[in-house]
Design a protein that fits this description.
This protein has helices at 14-25, 52-61; strands spanning 2-9, 30-35, 41-46, 65-70. By secondary structure, the chain is α+β, with helices and mostly antiparallel strands. The mean pLDDT is 93. Bound molecules: copper (II) ion (CU).
């Protein structure tokens, strides 16, 4: 298990959080996703290695953008 963090801009309400979490959870490697519209922080727990770019692509496809990325 590994947690990936993203700094996302464009989330303005609880609906945005939920939409993004749902989209990320649809990825087969993702077991948990939590988004915070206030801070823009998105944490994604994955059960197997996954390319960050894949998740970034999903976030962007939902209409949000990546502010910066932190690696752990
Ligand atoms: Cu919203």
């Amino acid at each position: 298990m590994e947690t990936l963090e993203f700094q996302v801009s464009g989330m303005v309400c609880h609906g945005c959080e939920q939409a993004l979490e749902m989209l990320l959870r649809q990825h087969p490697a993702v077991t948990e996703a939590s988004a915070d519209a206030k801070t823009g922080r998105v944490n994604v727990v994955v059960s197997e290695p996954v390319e960050r770019a894949e998740l970034v692509q999903r976030i962007k496809s939902a209409g949000f953008s990546i502010e910066s990325e932190t690696n752990h």
